[in-house]
Design brief:
Length: 479
């Protein structure tokens, strides 16, 4: 027996309680965070009024293609940890898969807390719209730390505590949070069309013609932002060990959540277009300033109370997104620890609630610390790191798995194979190659990849694991 798992709760396991509706719920909670509300003017400014619609559609197309890869792998390997389990199985748990699995958890130890912290920092920025004093720095020697940093950290702690309960209670709470998310989206859409109707009817704002090169560059930058706003459709795969009938539920949940959210984003973009005449000038403004754009549309349509209500609902939406992020990602270190491929104490299951409580607390604690750092350019760094160290590995991996193990039972087989992974790769490479200052993000991803690989090699040598056990592996295969 693996030494790393010998001390874990005997007989403890995760319960399969998540059905289709809850699976779609958890995906959509992560997808619709603060992103679409504060990045709406960024998408319009990058691509222009006409192409902004295409950015959301192209982002949805990439999400569908990538989602089909997640759907096939999630149905085939419905285990806690999502990508961690996929990469180990595809590339071999006793060979390169061990390294790639560790590397995924390593990059997640940076990207997941940063994702969670960025949501909390965004939330605290919106609170500053109601309480401007939050923008002040209470410690003169640390001017970069504001009262809003403490508010963000407090939000992170509170959400961690809300998740420290059994999955049934967590699901009930998630539905309550989701009601606020839907209300926020509906409020922005209705306000936008109502404002347009009151000012002469809906119309596409005039924009100057662009050269093909500038149009492609702007579309790539806008699609990168839209892609970030769509991410989360795969959240249910991280909860694979807790899903009922995963071979059916996981693929359906992924595709349904992409289609529903894409329709919402497209409607929101169309509703806001007539009111976004000066979108470009808001690009450099803070999140607290950009949220005023969405809130002011509601205020113009229905009055001051509507603007404040929309702002409050978006704060609620930010909380719901962090809730879903922390729920899904807390299962990854747990799964790696149970396999002996990460810190073993994170593999414990709470004897009463049947949740990976140590992994949850650890991730929440790291995210709370990150709330005191500046997170400028985090979105871009997260996108590039995950594309290179997670998504592209899965796209190549699903093709390798089909080639090496064609007779493996596949509960869900993606249609039009191999087009979905190839198109997803093409879409991701397009936004990577065409965006401005692409090298900066690539260097960050390379640094995480190299440092993780060096730590893995040192650890593998101590434990006589791949690639230092090649002779043993060959003998086992020969036997």
């Amino acid at each position: 027996m693996n030494q790393s798992t010998s001390h874990h709760d005997s007989g403890a396991s995760l319960d399969r309680r998540i059905g289709l509706r809850s699976a779609v719920l958890f995906n959509m909670l992560e997808m619709i965070g603060v992103g679409p509300f504060i990045t709406l003017p960024l998408v319009i400014a990058a691509a222009g009024y006409h192409l902004s619609v295409w950015a959301w559609l192209l982002g949805a197309a990439i999400a569908v293609c990538d989602g089909l890869v997640w759907a096939e792998l999630g149905a085939e390997f419905p285990r806690a940890g999502g990508s961690y389990a996929f990469l180990r199985e595809i590339y071999g748990p006793t060979s390169a898969g061990n390294w790639l699995g560790f590397l995924f958890v390593w990059q997640l130890s940076f990207s997941a807390p940063l994702s969670i912290a960025s949501g909390c920092i965004g939330l605290s920025g919106f609170l500053a719209w109601f309480w401007p004093g939050l923008e002040k720095a209470p410690i003169a020697a640390l001017p970069m730390v504001h009262w809003s940093s403490f508010a963000a950290a407090g939000a992170c702690v509170l959400i961690t505590l809300l998740l420290y309960r059994n999955l049934k209670s967590t699901t009930r709470l998630a539905w309550i949070l989701f009601a606020g998310v839907v209300a926020a989206m509906a409020g922005v859409i209705v306000s936008g069309f109502a404002h347009a109707a009151a000012t002469g009817g809906w119309h596409m704002p005039h924009s100057p013609a662009l050269s093909a090169g500038l149009a492609a560059s702007g579309l790539a930058q806008a699609t990168l932002i839209a892609t970030y706003d769509y991410w989360g459709y795969y959240n249910i795969t991280f909860l694979g060990s807790e899903v009922r009938e995963p071979e059916k539920t996981i693929p359906r949940a992924i595709l349904l959540s992409v289609v529903i959210v894409a329709a919402m984003y497209l409607l929101m973009n169309l509703a806001a277009l007539p009111s976004m005449q000066d979108a470009a000038k808001h690009v450099a403004e803070s999140a607290a300033s950009r949220i005023r754009l969405v809130a002011e549309i509601a205020q113009s349509a229905f009055g001051v109370w509507a603007g404040r209500l929309i702002a409050a609902l978006i704060i609620w939406t930010a909380s719901a997104s962090v809730f879903s992020l922390l729920l899904g990602y807390s299962r990854v270190p747990y799964a790696a620890a149970r396999d002996g491929n990460f810190f073993s104490f994170l593999g414990a299951i709470h004897p009463k609630f049947h949740i990976p409580h140590r992994s949850l607390i650890a991730l929440g604690a790291v995210a709370t610390c990150f709330c005191f750092f500046s997170l400028q350019q985090v979105i871009t760094m997260l996108v590039i790191t995950r594309i290179l160290l997670q998504f592209l590995l899965q796209h190549v991996g699903v093709i390798l798995l089909r080639t090496k193990r064609p007779d493996m039972p596949r509960p869900f087989k993606m249609p039009l194979y191999p087009l979905p992974p190839l198109l997803a790769m093409a879409g991701f490479l397009f936004i990577l190659a065409k965006r401005v200052n692409a090298l900066e993000g690539l260097l960050v991803a390379a640094g995480i990849g190299v440092s993780g690989t060096l730590i893995y090699l040192w650890r593998a040598k101590q434990r006589s694991e791949w690639p230092f056990n090649l002779r043993t592996t060959e003998n086992q295969q020969a036997g």
